[in-house]
Amino acid sequence: MSEFSPSSAAPAPRHPSSRPELSIVVPVHNEADSLPLLVERLKQVLDGAVSSWELVCVDDGSRDGTLSVLKQLSANDGRISAISFSRNFGKEIAIAAGLDHAAGDAVVIMDADLQHPPETIPAFLQKWREGFLNVYGQRSDRDGESALKRNFARMFYRLFARFGETELPEGAGDFRLLDRKVVDALRALPERARFSKGLYAWVGFPGTGVTFDVAEREHGETKFRYRKLFSFAFDGLSSFSTVPLKIATWAGAVIALISTFTALYFVIRTMVFGTDLPGFPSLIVSIMFFSGIQLLSLGMIGEYVGRIFAEVKRRPLYLIGERVGFAARTVDHPRGDALPPLIR
Ligand code: UDP
Ligand code: MG
Questions:
Q1: Is 115 in the pocket of ligand 1 (CB under 6 A)?
Q2: Angle, alpha carbons 161-164-169 (nearest 5°)
Q3: CA 95 to ligand 1: nearest atom
Q4: For 45-93, what is each residue's pLDDT tens digit?
Q5: pTM to 2 decimals?
Q6: How many angstroms separate the alpha carbon of residue 154 from the centre of ligand 2?
Q7: CB 120 within 8 A of CB 175
Q8: How do beta strands 134-139 and 172-179 pair?
Protein backbone atom coordinates (compact mmCIF):
# COMPACT_ATOMS: atom_id res chain seq x y z
CA MET A 1 0.00 0.00 0.00
CA SER A 2 1.13 3.49 -0.70
CA GLU A 3 1.95 5.47 2.35
CA PHE A 4 0.07 8.27 0.65
CA SER A 5 -3.50 7.17 1.04
CA PRO A 6 -5.85 10.13 0.47
CA SER A 7 -5.97 10.99 4.15
CA SER A 8 -2.24 10.91 4.73
CA ALA A 9 -1.64 12.91 1.55
CA ALA A 10 -3.07 16.00 3.22
CA PRO A 11 -0.24 18.46 3.60
CA ALA A 12 1.43 18.69 6.93
CA PRO A 13 0.46 21.82 8.85
CA ARG A 14 2.49 24.77 7.70
CA HIS A 15 3.56 27.91 9.38
CA PRO A 16 0.61 30.24 8.75
CA SER A 17 2.69 33.08 7.37
CA SER A 18 4.40 30.74 4.91
CA ARG A 19 1.14 29.96 3.21
CA PRO A 20 0.49 32.39 0.36
CA GLU A 21 -2.98 32.98 -0.97
CA LEU A 22 -1.98 31.96 -4.47
CA SER A 23 0.74 29.74 -5.91
CA ILE A 24 1.64 29.81 -9.58
CA VAL A 25 3.03 26.51 -10.84
CA VAL A 26 4.96 26.61 -14.10
CA PRO A 27 6.53 23.58 -15.80
CA VAL A 28 9.64 24.81 -17.58
CA HIS A 29 11.69 23.12 -20.27
CA ASN A 30 14.29 25.25 -22.08
CA GLU A 31 12.51 28.54 -21.49
CA ALA A 32 15.41 30.75 -20.36
CA ASP A 33 14.25 33.55 -22.66
CA SER A 34 10.61 33.48 -21.62
CA LEU A 35 11.02 33.42 -17.85
CA PRO A 36 12.04 37.02 -17.06
CA LEU A 37 9.14 38.33 -19.14
CA LEU A 38 6.75 35.89 -17.49
CA VAL A 39 7.81 36.99 -14.02
CA GLU A 40 7.43 40.65 -15.02
CA ARG A 41 3.89 40.16 -16.27
CA LEU A 42 2.94 37.99 -13.31
CA LYS A 43 4.13 40.66 -10.88
CA GLN A 44 2.06 43.32 -12.60
CA VAL A 45 -1.06 41.20 -12.49
CA LEU A 46 -0.73 39.57 -9.09
CA ASP A 47 0.46 42.38 -6.86
CA GLY A 48 -2.94 44.03 -6.92
CA ALA A 49 -5.02 40.88 -7.18
CA VAL A 50 -4.02 38.76 -4.19
CA SER A 51 -2.70 39.38 -0.69
CA SER A 52 0.33 37.13 -1.19
CA TRP A 53 1.63 34.85 -3.89
CA GLU A 54 4.52 32.59 -4.79
CA LEU A 55 5.86 31.27 -8.04
CA VAL A 56 7.03 27.66 -8.17
CA CYS A 57 8.90 26.78 -11.35
CA VAL A 58 9.71 23.19 -12.14
CA ASP A 59 12.75 22.96 -14.36
CA ASP A 60 12.10 19.81 -16.34
CA GLY A 61 15.65 18.94 -17.35
CA SER A 62 16.41 22.09 -19.35
CA ARG A 63 19.73 22.41 -21.15
CA ASP A 64 19.74 26.08 -21.99
CA GLY A 65 20.62 27.78 -18.73
CA THR A 66 17.05 27.93 -17.51
CA LEU A 67 18.18 26.91 -14.05
CA SER A 68 20.64 29.78 -13.71
CA VAL A 69 17.94 32.20 -14.85
CA LEU A 70 15.67 30.73 -12.19
CA LYS A 71 18.37 31.11 -9.55
CA GLN A 72 18.81 34.74 -10.53
CA LEU A 73 15.07 35.40 -10.39
CA SER A 74 14.79 33.66 -7.04
CA ALA A 75 17.68 35.65 -5.60
CA ASN A 76 15.97 38.87 -6.65
CA ASP A 77 12.55 37.95 -5.36
CA GLY A 78 11.97 35.64 -2.39
CA ARG A 79 8.52 34.72 -3.67
CA ILE A 80 10.08 32.83 -6.56
CA SER A 81 11.34 29.32 -6.01
CA ALA A 82 12.25 26.45 -8.25
CA ILE A 83 12.94 22.78 -8.27
CA SER A 84 15.04 21.20 -10.89
CA PHE A 85 14.62 17.62 -12.05
CA SER A 86 17.56 15.31 -12.52
CA ARG A 87 16.46 14.93 -16.17
CA ASN A 88 13.49 15.60 -18.44
CA PHE A 89 10.46 13.82 -16.99
CA GLY A 90 7.78 15.50 -19.11
CA LYS A 91 5.31 18.30 -18.56
CA GLU A 92 2.68 16.22 -16.78
CA ILE A 93 5.13 15.09 -14.14
CA ALA A 94 6.57 18.58 -13.80
CA ILE A 95 3.06 19.78 -13.00
CA ALA A 96 2.67 17.03 -10.40
CA ALA A 97 5.94 18.09 -8.76
CA GLY A 98 4.84 21.71 -8.83
CA LEU A 99 1.59 20.82 -7.07
CA ASP A 100 3.60 18.91 -4.47
CA HIS A 101 5.63 22.03 -3.75
CA ALA A 102 2.98 24.72 -3.97
CA ALA A 103 1.75 26.00 -0.63
CA GLY A 104 -1.03 28.38 -1.67
CA ASP A 105 -4.72 28.21 -0.84
CA ALA A 106 -5.20 28.14 -4.57
CA VAL A 107 -2.83 27.12 -7.33
CA VAL A 108 -2.71 28.39 -10.90
CA ILE A 109 -0.98 26.14 -13.42
CA MET A 110 0.34 27.83 -16.54
CA ASP A 111 2.90 27.47 -19.34
CA ALA A 112 6.12 29.43 -19.26
CA ASP A 113 5.95 30.57 -22.85
CA LEU A 114 3.29 33.27 -22.23
CA GLN A 115 0.76 31.46 -24.38
CA HIS A 116 -1.31 31.45 -21.22
CA PRO A 117 -1.75 35.17 -20.56
CA PRO A 118 -1.21 36.08 -16.90
CA GLU A 119 -3.90 38.74 -17.36
CA THR A 120 -6.52 35.96 -17.26
CA ILE A 121 -5.64 35.07 -13.66
CA PRO A 122 -7.87 37.77 -12.05
CA ALA A 123 -10.84 36.23 -13.86
CA PHE A 124 -9.85 32.83 -12.40
CA LEU A 125 -9.61 34.38 -8.95
CA GLN A 126 -13.02 35.98 -9.35
CA LYS A 127 -14.58 32.58 -10.09
CA TRP A 128 -12.66 31.00 -7.23
CA ARG A 129 -14.00 33.61 -4.81
CA GLU A 130 -17.48 32.87 -6.12
CA GLY A 131 -16.94 29.32 -4.87
CA PHE A 132 -15.66 27.36 -7.87
CA LEU A 133 -12.82 25.06 -6.87
CA ASN A 134 -11.68 23.93 -10.32
CA VAL A 135 -11.56 26.92 -12.70
CA TYR A 136 -10.24 26.03 -16.14
CA GLY A 137 -9.12 28.27 -18.94
CA GLN A 138 -10.85 27.50 -22.20
CA ARG A 139 -9.00 28.55 -25.29
CA SER A 140 -11.22 30.65 -27.49
CA ASP A 141 -9.71 29.23 -30.68
CA ARG A 142 -6.89 27.12 -31.97
CA ASP A 143 -5.91 29.54 -34.71
CA GLY A 144 -2.26 29.50 -33.77
CA GLU A 145 -1.95 25.82 -34.61
CA SER A 146 -1.64 23.97 -37.86
CA ALA A 147 -4.82 22.51 -39.37
CA LEU A 148 -3.41 19.02 -38.90
CA LYS A 149 -2.83 19.54 -35.19
CA ARG A 150 -6.30 21.07 -34.82
CA ASN A 151 -7.93 18.12 -36.51
CA PHE A 152 -6.05 15.62 -34.40
CA ALA A 153 -7.08 17.52 -31.29
CA ARG A 154 -10.72 17.48 -32.38
CA MET A 155 -10.53 13.76 -33.17
CA PHE A 156 -8.98 13.06 -29.79
CA TYR A 157 -11.68 14.98 -27.90
CA ARG A 158 -14.37 13.17 -29.85
CA LEU A 159 -12.82 9.77 -29.09
CA PHE A 160 -12.42 10.67 -25.46
CA ALA A 161 -16.00 11.94 -25.19
CA ARG A 162 -17.21 8.66 -26.71
CA PHE A 163 -15.02 6.19 -24.82
CA GLY A 164 -13.43 7.94 -21.87
CA GLU A 165 -14.64 7.52 -18.31
CA THR A 166 -14.84 11.22 -17.59
CA GLU A 167 -16.02 14.25 -19.51
CA LEU A 168 -13.37 16.66 -20.71
CA PRO A 169 -14.57 20.23 -21.11
CA GLU A 170 -13.93 21.37 -24.69
CA GLY A 171 -10.72 23.33 -25.15
CA ALA A 172 -9.72 23.15 -21.49
CA GLY A 173 -6.06 22.47 -20.89
CA ASP A 174 -3.55 22.84 -18.13
CA PHE A 175 -4.09 26.59 -17.72
CA ARG A 176 -6.33 26.62 -14.66
CA LEU A 177 -6.84 27.51 -11.03
CA LEU A 178 -7.27 24.74 -8.49
CA ASP A 179 -8.39 25.16 -4.92
CA ARG A 180 -6.25 23.57 -2.20
CA LYS A 181 -8.87 20.81 -1.87
CA VAL A 182 -8.50 19.87 -5.53
CA VAL A 183 -4.71 20.04 -5.34
CA ASP A 184 -4.69 17.64 -2.40
CA ALA A 185 -7.08 15.32 -4.21
CA LEU A 186 -4.80 15.29 -7.27
CA ARG A 187 -1.77 14.66 -5.12
CA ALA A 188 -3.46 11.64 -3.63
CA LEU A 189 -3.79 9.99 -7.06
CA PRO A 190 -0.96 7.50 -7.27
CA GLU A 191 -0.75 6.79 -10.97
CA ARG A 192 2.42 7.28 -12.94
CA ALA A 193 0.92 7.62 -16.41
CA ARG A 194 -0.43 11.05 -15.64
CA PHE A 195 -2.89 12.43 -18.10
CA SER A 196 -3.64 15.55 -16.12
CA LYS A 197 -6.54 16.78 -18.26
CA GLY A 198 -8.35 13.57 -17.39
CA LEU A 199 -7.31 13.69 -13.74
CA TYR A 200 -8.61 17.25 -13.31
CA ALA A 201 -11.96 16.09 -14.58
CA TRP A 202 -11.90 12.83 -12.65
CA VAL A 203 -11.48 14.44 -9.22
CA GLY A 204 -14.62 16.47 -9.78
CA PHE A 205 -15.46 19.45 -7.51
CA PRO A 206 -17.49 22.44 -8.72
CA GLY A 207 -15.80 23.78 -11.82
CA THR A 208 -16.33 26.43 -14.43
CA GLY A 209 -14.55 27.76 -17.49
CA VAL A 210 -13.02 31.12 -18.30
CA THR A 211 -12.21 31.79 -21.94
CA PHE A 212 -8.85 33.20 -22.93
CA ASP A 213 -7.02 33.91 -26.16
CA VAL A 214 -3.98 31.75 -26.74
CA ALA A 215 -1.11 34.10 -27.42
CA GLU A 216 1.71 33.40 -29.83
CA ARG A 217 4.74 31.77 -28.31
CA GLU A 218 7.14 34.58 -27.34
CA HIS A 219 10.44 32.72 -27.50
CA GLY A 220 11.70 29.36 -28.63
CA GLU A 221 9.46 26.74 -30.17
CA THR A 222 6.95 24.15 -29.08
CA LYS A 223 8.34 21.14 -27.26
CA PHE A 224 5.56 18.90 -28.46
CA ARG A 225 6.15 17.21 -31.76
CA TYR A 226 3.58 14.92 -33.34
CA ARG A 227 5.10 11.74 -31.98
CA LYS A 228 4.90 13.10 -28.45
CA LEU A 229 1.35 14.29 -28.98
CA PHE A 230 0.29 10.86 -30.24
CA SER A 231 1.74 9.04 -27.28
CA PHE A 232 0.14 11.65 -25.05
CA ALA A 233 -3.26 11.06 -26.65
CA PHE A 234 -2.88 7.30 -26.29
CA ASP A 235 -1.86 7.68 -22.65
CA GLY A 236 -4.99 9.70 -22.10
CA LEU A 237 -7.30 7.22 -23.75
CA SER A 238 -5.75 4.14 -22.19
CA SER A 239 -5.64 5.57 -18.68
CA PHE A 240 -9.27 6.52 -18.80
CA SER A 241 -10.79 3.81 -20.91
CA THR A 242 -10.60 0.07 -21.35
CA VAL A 243 -12.44 0.26 -24.66
CA PRO A 244 -9.35 -0.51 -26.78
CA LEU A 245 -9.10 -3.83 -24.94
CA LYS A 246 -12.71 -4.56 -25.72
CA ILE A 247 -12.33 -3.59 -29.37
CA ALA A 248 -9.64 -6.24 -29.70
CA THR A 249 -11.88 -8.84 -28.08
CA TRP A 250 -14.85 -7.99 -30.28
CA ALA A 251 -12.83 -7.83 -33.46
CA GLY A 252 -11.35 -11.21 -32.57
CA ALA A 253 -14.80 -12.73 -31.96
CA VAL A 254 -16.34 -11.34 -35.15
CA ILE A 255 -13.42 -12.39 -37.30
CA ALA A 256 -13.36 -15.88 -35.79
CA LEU A 257 -17.04 -16.20 -36.64
CA ILE A 258 -16.50 -15.04 -40.20
CA SER A 259 -13.60 -17.44 -40.65
CA THR A 260 -15.74 -20.33 -39.37
CA PHE A 261 -18.34 -19.59 -42.04
CA THR A 262 -15.64 -19.22 -44.67
CA ALA A 263 -14.19 -22.58 -43.69
CA LEU A 264 -17.64 -24.18 -43.89
CA TYR A 265 -18.16 -22.64 -47.31
CA PHE A 266 -14.89 -24.08 -48.56
CA VAL A 267 -15.63 -27.53 -47.15
CA ILE A 268 -19.03 -27.65 -48.81
CA ARG A 269 -17.68 -26.31 -52.08
CA THR A 270 -14.95 -28.94 -52.10
CA MET A 271 -17.49 -31.69 -51.42
CA VAL A 272 -19.74 -30.51 -54.26
CA PHE A 273 -17.21 -29.45 -56.88
CA GLY A 274 -14.07 -31.34 -55.84
CA THR A 275 -10.69 -29.83 -55.11
CA ASP A 276 -9.20 -27.15 -57.23
CA LEU A 277 -5.74 -25.76 -57.01
CA PRO A 278 -6.71 -22.09 -57.21
CA GLY A 279 -7.38 -20.68 -53.79
CA PHE A 280 -3.79 -20.08 -53.07
CA PRO A 281 -4.24 -16.25 -53.02
CA SER A 282 -7.17 -16.47 -50.59
CA LEU A 283 -5.02 -18.62 -48.33
CA ILE A 284 -2.22 -16.11 -48.23
CA VAL A 285 -4.62 -13.23 -47.77
CA SER A 286 -6.39 -14.88 -44.88
CA ILE A 287 -3.15 -15.85 -43.16
CA MET A 288 -1.95 -12.31 -43.43
CA PHE A 289 -5.26 -10.92 -42.28
CA PHE A 290 -5.44 -13.08 -39.18
CA SER A 291 -1.83 -12.60 -38.24
CA GLY A 292 -2.51 -8.92 -38.48
CA ILE A 293 -5.49 -9.12 -36.19
CA GLN A 294 -3.58 -11.23 -33.72
CA LEU A 295 -0.72 -8.84 -33.64
CA LEU A 296 -3.11 -5.97 -33.19
CA SER A 297 -4.82 -7.58 -30.21
CA LEU A 298 -1.50 -8.58 -28.71
CA GLY A 299 -0.29 -5.06 -29.14
CA MET A 300 -3.36 -3.65 -27.43
CA ILE A 301 -2.91 -5.99 -24.51
CA GLY A 302 0.77 -5.19 -24.48
CA GLU A 303 0.01 -1.49 -24.10
CA TYR A 304 -1.99 -2.17 -20.98
CA VAL A 305 0.48 -4.68 -19.62
CA GLY A 306 3.18 -2.09 -20.15
CA ARG A 307 1.20 0.40 -18.11
CA ILE A 308 0.57 -2.14 -15.38
CA PHE A 309 4.29 -2.82 -15.37
CA ALA A 310 5.05 0.88 -15.03
CA GLU A 311 2.62 1.17 -12.13
CA VAL A 312 3.75 -1.90 -10.20
CA LYS A 313 7.39 -0.89 -10.37
CA ARG A 314 6.45 1.96 -8.05
CA ARG A 315 9.29 4.12 -9.15
CA PRO A 316 9.29 7.64 -7.81
CA LEU A 317 7.44 9.96 -10.11
CA TYR A 318 10.38 12.33 -10.35
CA LEU A 319 13.82 12.94 -8.91
CA ILE A 320 14.90 16.35 -7.79
CA GLY A 321 18.42 17.47 -8.62
CA GLU A 322 18.32 20.84 -6.94
CA ARG A 323 15.95 23.17 -5.14
CA VAL A 324 16.17 26.91 -5.36
CA GLY A 325 14.62 29.36 -2.95
CA PHE A 326 12.98 26.86 -0.61
CA ALA A 327 15.55 26.85 2.18
CA ALA A 328 14.61 30.33 3.33
CA ARG A 329 11.07 29.30 3.92
CA THR A 330 9.43 27.24 6.59
CA VAL A 331 7.22 25.49 4.07
CA ASP A 332 6.96 21.80 4.59
CA HIS A 333 7.10 19.78 1.42
CA PRO A 334 6.44 16.24 2.47
CA ARG A 335 6.89 14.49 -0.81
CA GLY A 336 9.61 16.30 -2.67
CA ASP A 337 11.98 16.06 0.27
CA ALA A 338 11.83 12.35 0.74
CA LEU A 339 14.32 10.92 -1.65
CA PRO A 340 13.65 7.91 -1.62
CA PRO A 341 10.95 6.69 -1.05
CA LEU A 342 9.21 9.46 -2.93
CA ILE A 343 6.16 7.33 -3.49
CA ARG A 344 3.10 8.59 -5.20
N1 UDP B 1 7.37 21.58 -20.93
C2 UDP B 1 7.91 20.82 -19.91
N3 UDP B 1 8.50 19.61 -20.20
C4 UDP B 1 8.53 19.12 -21.49
C5 UDP B 1 7.93 19.89 -22.51
C6 UDP B 1 7.36 21.11 -22.20
O7 UDP B 1 7.91 21.23 -18.75
O8 UDP B 1 9.07 18.03 -21.68
C9 UDP B 1 6.75 22.89 -20.61
C10 UDP B 1 7.20 24.06 -21.47
O11 UDP B 1 8.35 24.67 -20.96
C12 UDP B 1 6.01 24.99 -21.39
C13 UDP B 1 4.84 24.03 -21.30
O14 UDP B 1 5.37 22.79 -20.84
O15 UDP B 1 6.04 25.79 -20.23
C16 UDP B 1 4.12 23.87 -22.63
O17 UDP B 1 5.04 23.49 -23.62
P18 UDP B 1 4.95 24.03 -25.10
O19 UDP B 1 4.68 25.50 -25.11
O20 UDP B 1 6.18 23.59 -25.81
O21 UDP B 1 3.70 23.25 -25.65
P22 UDP B 1 2.52 23.80 -26.59
O23 UDP B 1 2.14 25.15 -26.07
O24 UDP B 1 3.10 23.88 -27.96
O25 UDP B 1 1.44 22.78 -26.46
MG1 MG C 1 3.27 26.67 -25.66
A1: yes
A2: 45
A3: 7
A4: 998 888 899 999 999 989 888 999 999 998 888 889 999 998 898 898 9
A5: 0.70
A6: 18
A7: yes
A8: antiparallel
